[in-house]
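#lab-general

N.A. 3:47 PM
ok so I finally got the sequence cleaned up, no stray characters, all 161 residues accounted for. can someone with queue access submit it? mine expired

B.Y. 3:52 PM
send it over

N.A. 3:53 PM
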Amino acid sequence: MRVLGIDPGIAITGYGLVEEREGSLEALAYGDIRTPAGDPLPQRLRQLYEAICSLIEAHRPDVAAIERVFFGRNVTTAFAVGQARGVALLALAQAQIPIYEYAPADVKQALVGYGSAPKAQIQAMVRMLLHLPEIPRPDDVADALAVAICHLNHARLAALR
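B.Y. 4:20 PM
back already:
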């Protein structure tokens, strides 16, 4: 199964394509999509949409896993991230890719067994599980890979049931 993980954001959206082969996980592609802060929001959303469409076309994921976003205080940031998330969901839905959503605590639980694990621990686990030479940067990329791994773990457990 080839999973496209997405950590949505208006300034930086992390992505990671992870595949499970013979019980081992492999990162096929990962990186970030950045939109210029000075550009108007509609233009930034279009850029994000087009970049995600290009990723889908280039890598043909079987499913997508996207992080649910929770914000307690900064409403402006929450709206911008929500709009970026909506654009990502639209691109995936138009490509008819099944979408799975995971809360940050679910991702942490799936990777290290503890829903309140610190970010550094999650990043180290991503590096180890994917046999990467270093932790992917920026954090959004490691988060996208983590959500893809989370989905693979959930899918494996669902298959056993």
